[in-house]
């Protein structure tokens, strides 16, 4: 069975619900006092995991489309990618507003001194660039360079789970699993990516 | 009103310590009253407390009370020397934001997973290089020593802090009773090991990879310092399990992980004992672990801290971290000859 445009419309609707519900659930948890006595770390972790999981979903689309021979599936990537950006934005907004409490000088110091925050900041900068260039108009204008720019998502796929691994105090099993999955999803693109490696 | 208002003005409520709120009022009425007060928005009447107003919509303040573990009121004195002016962190935040990996690694896990914890019977053994080894049972913990309340700042190595009204007795009074031998140089502490009750000890994923039982240690000099405290209570009542029932250490000039919970063993020895976080990552967590804004944790700054107080999400403050968490007058002398950068 082939995915029809109408089917795609429904799929996108479903994806919007799937990616929005966790945010509403977080708001519910916080408002009903179920996210802990001081929910700040909970919110930061929750939105960070949201970004990472959405990223896995975004990266899984094209291998899945290939495997299922459903080319139309590729059209969900922009939607999912923008949710990655949305979760990452919430993650950083929570860090700056709730943890740092807008101590900007301190933020700069944090980014410079802390390698895991630096990785996160770098990953977020890439996501920001990908998001502002995600519109059709921009894509057309950029031509070939658009694909080159958007290949940087594979760097995000490596930076994000390392950022997670580096940020935890001791419980490294979960971040290790994420690193493996992300590395595998990048590895699936090896043919596409070897082109970018320096030639011998 | 709720518990926390009684502390904020620094006035001792008359015999507040003889009866807890939930003792004078049947518990169901007590809870209902709190939710009615909350529903009417009367919480805002506590507006004399800074931060309460701005908390507004996001005030997830004081209505949650689903703990099933039973605590009981304690009798104690309130020595002036330990009544600091810092406003206290509300009880429901102190009891619902805990690092106690034996019950899970999220901050809320200990509250969620520890309510069925059994503290009776309990046995705390004091042995090693002592003249009279002592074994204390649950009753002894609250009856053998005169209890006092101490309001201590608690600074977590994760760069957040609280102000907590502990009830207990000084570690020195216990050690003195046991008669420390002259050869002793260090004190080792050990948390209960009971995987049936502590899911984090059973399941590595849940327990964060720590080697259990959790162990901690102090030098004998540190342990004999009057600030070193054994807490058996919190906010006038016996400790809830997530805060380390029935007895825990409190060492306010050190990062929170030194203040080991649910202690079953105190062992006097003549060498430095192993400590859990140091075993796990020695370049990040030293034996001393004194609060020190000038020595950063390798992965984050220790120069400032998020102070968790009254009110909602946006009411916390970022404050500069003080050397020895502000207890330098009492403890700096212990480290005169120690390079605190090397011995972090």
Question: Percent range for helical residues of chain B?
Answer: 10-25%
Given as residue ranges, the uncertain stretches of chain B (5+ residues, pLDDT < 50) are 1-65
The largest sheet of chain A is: none
Number of strands of chain B: 12
Family (chain A): Belongs to the MsrQ family.
Main location (chain A): membrane
Domain Ferric oxidoreductase (chain A): 56-160
Protein name (chain A): Protein-methionine-sulfoxide reductase heme-binding subunit MsrQ
Kindly describe this structure:
The complex is a heterodimer of chains A (200) and B (344). Chain A has ten helices and no strands. With 200 residues, chain A is mostly helical. The mean pLDDT of chain A is 92. Chain B has 344 residues and is an alpha+beta fold. Chain B contains 13 helices and twelve strands. Chain B is globular, with a radius of gyration of 20 Å. The N terminus of chain B is likely disordered. At the A-B interface, helix 2, helix 3 and helix 4 of A face helix 5 of B. Chain B: This is Protein-methionine-sulfoxide reductase catalytic subunit MsrP. Chain B: InterPro entries: MsrP, OxRdtase_Mopterin-bd_dom, OxRdtase_Mopterin-bd_sf. Chain B: GO terms for molecular function: oxidoreductase activity. Chain B: Heterodimer of a catalytic subunit (MsrP) and a heme-binding subunit (MsrQ).
Task: Kindly summarize this structure in a few lines.
With 200 residues, chain A is mainly α. Chain A has helices spanning 5-31, 40-68, 77-99, 104-113, 115-132, 136-142, 144-150, 153-167, 173-187, 190-194. The termini of chain A are far apart.
Helices and strands, with pairings:
The complex is a heterodimer of chains A (200) and B (344).
Chain A: H1 5-31, H2 40-68, H3 77-99, H4 104-113, H5 115-132, H6 136-142, H7 144-150, H8 153-167, H9 173-187, H10 190-194
Chain B: H1 5-8, H2 21-24, H3 27-39, H4 52-55, H5 91-94, H6 109-113, E1 123-128, E2 134-137, H7 138-143, E3 148-155, E4 160-170, H8 171-178, E5 186-191, H9 199-202, H10 204-207, E6 215-219, H11 220-224, E7 229-234, E8 237-238, E9 248-250, E10 263-269, H12 276-280, E11 304-307, E12 317-320, H13 328-331
Parallel strand pairs in B: 1-10, 4-11
Antiparallel strand pairs in B: 1-2, 3-4, 4-7, 5-6, 5-10, 7-8, 7-9, 11-12
């Amino acid at each position: 069975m082939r995915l029809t445009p109408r089917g795609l419309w429904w799929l996108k609707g479903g994806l919007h619900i799937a990616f929005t519900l966790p945010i509403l659930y977080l708001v519910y948890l916080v408002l009903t006092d179920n996210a802990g006595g001081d929910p700040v770390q909970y919110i930061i972790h929750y939105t960070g995991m949201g970004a990472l999981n959405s990223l896995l979903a975004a990266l899984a689309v094209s291998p899945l489309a290939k495997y299922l021979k459903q080319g139309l599936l590729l059209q969900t990537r922009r939607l999912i990618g923008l949710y990655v950006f949305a979760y990452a934005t919430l993650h950083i907004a929570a860090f700056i507003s709730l943890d740092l409490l807008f101590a900007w000088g301190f933020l700069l110091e944090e980014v410079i001194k802390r390698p895991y925050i630096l990785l996160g900041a770098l990953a977020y900068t890439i996501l920001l660039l990908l998001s502002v260039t995600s519109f059709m108009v921009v894509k057309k204008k950029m031509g070939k360079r658009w694909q080159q720019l958007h290949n940087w998502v594979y760097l995000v796929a490596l930076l994000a789970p390392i950022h997670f691994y580096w940020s935890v105090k001791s419980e490294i099993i979960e971040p290790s699993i994420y690193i493996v999955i992300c590395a595998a999803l990048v590895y699936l693109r090896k043919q596409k990516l070897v082109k970018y490696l320096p030639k011998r | 009103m709720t518990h926390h208002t009684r502390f904020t003005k620094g006035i001792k409520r008359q015999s507040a310590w003889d009866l807890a709120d939930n003792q004078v009022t049947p518990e169901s009425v007590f809870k209902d009253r709190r939710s009615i007060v909350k529903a009417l928005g009367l919480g805002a009447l506590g507006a004399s407390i800074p931060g309460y107003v701005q908390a507004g919509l996001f005030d997830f303040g004081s209505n949650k009370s689903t703990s099933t573990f039973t605590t009981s009121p304690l009798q104690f004195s309130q020595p002036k020397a330990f009544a600091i002016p810092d406003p206290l962190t509300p009880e429901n935040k102190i009891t619902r934001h805990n690092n106690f990996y034996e019950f899970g690694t999220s901050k809320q896990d200990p509250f969620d997973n520890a309510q069925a914890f059994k503290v009776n019977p309990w046995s705390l053994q004091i042995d090693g290089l002592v003249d009279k080894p002592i074994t204390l049972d649950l009753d002894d913990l609250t009856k053998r020593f005169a209890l006092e309340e101490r309001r201590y700042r608690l600074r977590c190595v994760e760069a957040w802090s609280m102000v907590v009204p502990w009830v207990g007795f000084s570690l020195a009074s216990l050690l003195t009773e046991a008669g420390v031998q002259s050869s002793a140089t260090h004190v080792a502490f050990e948390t209960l090991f009971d995987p049936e009750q502590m899911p984090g000890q059973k399941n590595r994923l849940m327990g964060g990879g720590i080697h259990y039982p959790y162990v901690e240690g102090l030098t004998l000099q540190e342990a004999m310092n009057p600030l070193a405290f054994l807490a058996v209570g919190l906010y006038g009542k016996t400790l809830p399990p997530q805060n380390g029932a029935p007895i825990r250490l409190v060492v306010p000039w050190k990062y929170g992980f030194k203040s080991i919970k649910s202690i079953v063993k105190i062992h006097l020895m003549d060498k430095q004992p192993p400590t859990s976080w140091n075993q796990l990552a020695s370049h990040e967590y030293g034996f001393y672990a004194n609060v020190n804004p000038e020595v950063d944790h390798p992965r984050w700054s220790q120069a400032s801290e998020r102070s968790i107080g009254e009110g909602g999400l946006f009411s916390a403050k970022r404050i500069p971290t003080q050397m020895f968490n502000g207890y330098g007058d009492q403890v700096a002398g212990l480290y005169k000859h120690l390079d605190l950068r090397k011995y972090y």
